[in-house]
């Protein structure tokens, strides 16, 4: 049997169809995920930062010929639209928000975890960059497989430029979300997530993947974002990287997805005048300045 392939669906696919494929294969490509107008705006916005960003110093994982720019929600309105795209966020909710229950005294409380936007990053793989080591992104939370019985992350990689085998398209091992933690991934098991600019790869945090090698003379640019379970620590510290005044300009849903909220299990509250308050309330309080400075 050959290596399994990644399926591709159109942007008119239903959330249910996308979820079904991801649960089967671990990932899926969605063609024309954003419009040509959105792609053009994102390209211009991200190039303004990438063009003045030096390549990384880590030749092993981050890449010595790779540029990385974070704080994307603080820098791009179009990126906010991508994060709130129904096909992305609703798929994340379907996959991550597995219902459960807890006991509070004699009361059985039915609940489900919240999600949060854990990381945003533009990644530009330059000519000469080699293969990135294969990894699972949920390893940041030391997630175990299959003991926990739920996924920790749904990630998106939006192709800002065309992704090809030759220029460093993300390499994925379809089906590896079903592996235990003892099986080692190999590059021979990967497939390249080839797609046109404007298309997107969605995959769960338990899938082995890595950046491809760029043997061309042009860079390969992608925009990645991930929704994590809200009881896990954010990978990117939005509280320090995005100014409060910028947060106040964002849609309320995005504010909460950045962590300005109390979870369904009461994680993340802040004390105000002796009361446990939702931090989202602080954004409406003129006296509040920023985290660490308070009122």
Overall 3D form: globular
Oligomeric state of shown chains: single chain
Structural class: alpha+beta
The count of strands amounts to 14
User: Helix-strand pattern, N to C?
Assistant: EHEHEHHHEEEEEEEEEHHHEE
Helix content: 10-25%
**Average pLDDT score:** 94
Biggest beta sheet summary: 7 strands, mixed
Calculate the terminal CA-CA distance, rounded to whole Å: 63 Å
Radius of gyration: 20 Å
Count of alpha and pi helical runs: 8
Strand neighbour order, sheet with most strands: 1-2-10-7-12-6-3
Low-confidence stretches: none
Beta-strand proportion:
15-25%
Concise overview:
The protein has helices at 15-25, 36-50, 72-75, 77-83, 86-96, 238-241, 244-249, 252-257; strands at 8-9, 27-30, 66-69, 100-104, 107-111, 115-125, 153-159, 171-172, 191-192, 200-204, 209-210, 220-229, 270-272, 275-277. The protein is an alpha+beta fold and 295 residues long.
Question: What key attributes describe this structure?
Answer:
seven-stranded mixed β-sheet
